[in-house]
Amino acid sequence: MKQNFKHFLRIGCISLIALSLAGCNFLTRLANIGEEPPLSPIDNPVLQKGYQPVTLPMPRPEPVLQQANSLWRPGSKAFFKDQRASQVGDIVTVMVAIEDEATLNNSTDTTRSTNEEAGFAGLFGLESQVTKVLPEGTSAEGLIDFGSDHSVSGSGAVNRNETINMEIAAIVTQILPNGNMVIVGRQEVRVNFESRDLSVTGVVRPEDITSRNTVQSSKIAEARIAYGGRGHLTDVQQGRYGQQLFDIIFPF
Predict the structure, then answer these.
(1) CA 221 to CA 129: how far, in whole Å?
(2) From CA 88, how far away is CA 171, in angstroms rounded?
(3) φ/ψ of residue 235, rounded to 5
(4) Dmax over Cα atoms in the chain, in whole Å?
(5) What is the pLDDT of residues 33-88, one digit of tens each?
């Protein structure tokens, strides 16, 4: 009885949490009926919830080389002033170019069969006492007999083709001790009742930034690129909360 009560209590807690989450989303969607999806305000990325400064292995510090009577600065691509992003708060344009294509086919087929027999023909004359301890018909020569059959057959296929070509402006939020820069960029585009969001985060080298103050997405280390949407079309493409909860808790 006590176990049944705990079982029903657990189900009730899960259902209450699901209803509360669905209720919050229901009220939000109900308030936005007939309205465009709201855009996020422009905030300082460093003050965003979950933001953490990047810590990476750093090389040994090197002394700064001073060149007397020289008007040219090491690493500069312009004679008068370097227009590339170099300080916290500077803006750099990220050229997002992703063209991934992969085709994988895997097949596995294994079969295994084992058979083990064990017994004793003589043990100080005690083999004759086996029938007195074990049921009739038991012999000392065949006390143990194990057999097993195992078969596995599986196949899988992946065919993927992704192409993304976009530009996004990112802000330098941190300068690492070796001179590399941490960049964070977010972009929101709303068309009618659908909002498209693009975000880029990662670490870039100053040498990879071109004279036009652009950097290729393939040059970004620890890159995190996300492209998605919010709005009516995205809601229709997503499964209902009840169906998602059922998929999580249903074991079969």
Answers:
(1) 75
(2) 8
(3) -65, -40
(4) 108
(5) 667 777 778 788 888 888 888 887 777 776 766 666 666 666 555 566 677 888 88
